[in-house]
Amino acid sequence: MILGIESSCDESAIAIVDANGQVKGEWIHSQIAKHAEYGGVVPDLAVGEHLKNFFPLLDLARTELSIPAGLESVAVTCGPGLAGCLGVGITIAKTLSLQWGIPVNGVNHLRGHAFSPFMPLGNVHDLEKSKYFPHLGLLLSGGNTLLFQIDKDLTIDVLARTVDDAVGECLDKGAKLLGIAYPGAPELEKKAKDGDEKAFDFPRFIPKKNELRFSFSGLKTSLLYQLKKMADTEIDNCYSDLCASYQQAAFDQLVKTTKKVLGEKKYKSFGLSGGVSNNQKIRDDLSDLCKKREVCFLPAPKKYTGDNASMIAYCAVMDPGGLWSNEGQQLIFSPNLKICDLAI
Q1: DSSP assignment of 80-138, as one string?
Q2: Cα end-to-end distance, the chain, whole Å
Q3: CA distance linking residue 52 with residue 243, whole number of Å
Q4: What is the pLDDT of residues 280-316, one digit of tens each?
Q5: Based on C-alpha coordinates, what's the Rg of the chain?
Q6: How far apart are the C-alpha atoms of 260 and 243, rounded to whole Å?
Q7: How far apart are CA 281 and CA 310, in angstroms?
Q8: Dihedral angle at the C-alpha atoms of 193, 195, 198, 203, nearest 10 degrees?
Q9: What is the spatial distance between Cα 112 and Cα 137, in angstroms, rounded to a whole number?
Q10: Mind listing the pLDDT tens digit for each residue in 241-281?
């Protein structure tokens, strides 16, 4: 079994996953309420909360699963993320490794998300590869918007990424313009449910011919200008329509680019992951697309769309080629780690 540790941002989490990819236990402490009053994550506050929360979580794991008995290694997020937060997780992981006499490895947080859609299927290595690979994945979060391919040998290649704001950042900033408190995207989704997504014609980014990329900064600016043209009473009267139209403009770009890529190559499955993938509207839109293209749709379980330690431990089992070794105590954090960055 592997103990996973996640501390890249504002979630303190540990989990235990067995060799078959089954989650045996998970413990998490969210800091959202702590950061809400500041309108976003405060790095120093996040570090302090991690230091306070991890040891009680470990005590719970010891009580419920009698660890370290049965543990073969520790897997810890080594990037990307907030430097101080990553440092807390790695320090704890190294300490436990020395104390328990088991190895520790670093896991790329983005690769954890990339493999999370496979979690309900168990061990990726036991799957019929021709049924699920090549796999097309879309990772949507506050810091990343990535369209990538996973081949049968589990190598990852990025096909498209955002050139400015990530889609999660776009939704959060749009929510803030609409007066919605942090974290804005989930509340924006609720407001949008009763709105007309075609009421406002917000722009959809159009890349150059034969170019694959995303861009969301123009959409945010368009909302700002639209709100400036409207009186407060007018905004109130069509508030849900504004939310729905803005959200759909962001999602249409994602669906259009995904549709283009699915039309150019025969992918066997499509995975959706990251915090924004918790949004039911984008799940439904992409599910419909996959049905039309006859591609197996694999959305990450909603409980594993946000930052969590279960996907980190799962990734350590499924993606050994993507692990970062602590040989010679050399494992360090890398705040700007890319999804395709591998240990040399």
Answers
A1: SS-HHHHHHHHHHHHHHHHHHT--EEEEEHHHHHHHGGGGGG--GGGS-HHHH-SEEEE
A2: 26
A3: 37
A4: 999 999 999 999 999 999 999 999 999 999 999 999 9
A5: 20
A6: 26
A7: 25
A8: -80
A9: 12
A10: 999 999 999 999 999 999 999 999 999 999 999 999 999 99
Would you state the structure tokens that stand for residue 141, as one six-digit string?
A: 């979060």
Q: Is 214 left (phi over 0), alpha (psi -120 to 50) or beta?
A: beta
111, 315 contact by CB (below 8 A): yes
- Greatest alpha-carbon pair distance for the chain in Å reads 65
CATH fold of the domain at 128-303? Nucleotidyltransferase; domain 5 (3.30.420)
CB 74 within 8 A of CB 91: no
- Backbone φ, ψ for residue 212 (5° rounding): -115, 115
Q: Are 340 and 157 in contact (CB under 8 A)?
A: yes
Instruction: Compute the distance between CA of residue 18 and CA of residue 73 in angstroms, rounded to an integer.
Output: 11
Residue 19: CB atoms within 10 Å: 10
Please list the residues that pair with 214 across neighbouring strands: 162
Residue that is written with structure tokens 């990535």 in the block: 146
Structure tokens at 52: 């306070």
CATH level 2 (architecture), domain 2-115+304-329: 2-Layer Sandwich (3.30)
Calpha distance 323→233 (Å, rounded): 54
| Type of residue at 89 | G
Collapsed DSSP state (helix, strand, coil) of residue 25: strand
Cβ-based burial of 198 (10 A; exposed 0-12, middle 13-18, buried ≥19): exposed
Give pLDDT, residue 125: 87
Instruction: Tell me how far apart the alpha carbons of residues 299 and 277 are, in angstroms, rounded to a whole number.
Output: 8
